[in-house]
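Slide 14.
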Amino acid sequence: MADRAFQRSQEAYDVMGFTRTVEPGVDDIGVSTENTLGSGYCYGGGLLSLDETVDGAYRMSHRWALDRVPAGRAVPGLRRLHQHLKENGWEVTSYREGGAAGDWDLFVQRDGGDERMSFTWFPDREYFMGGATGSCASDPGWEDGDVGPSGDGLWPPVLGPAQRN
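Slide 15: predicted structure.
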């Protein structure tokens, strides 16, 4: 599941046209580059449900961010990504072009919201954030009494421009 979330992020990164390499980890959230994986619980009635968590089920997320992203890179990249995702079966749940001063946002989902991606560019800080969350999966190694969602402690590969053969 971590691979799928990372692949979604990698695809978006490529469509945006970014060329920098982002090593796994983060030094200063919201300031420095980021390339991290996380896991979360799955709920019986869906993501927004107040139901109890499903034992042994989890969902993986990949978060990434770049600093020093000027308007000349972010604006055409987000517009291109918006169009690309629409053309490839993603439902755009929110898209906002913030102009020169406001934040730019793109939120998409597919499979009834089981898979989601979000992207935000902050022009005042020239900071771009992206992320992908996969659908729920079952951990075959989960046992009664395990605490926390599965998938914690995983590291993503290096995020960067796609390698073309």
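Speaker note: The beta strands are 25-26, 34-43, 53-66, 91-96, 104-110, 115-122, 127-133, 137-138.
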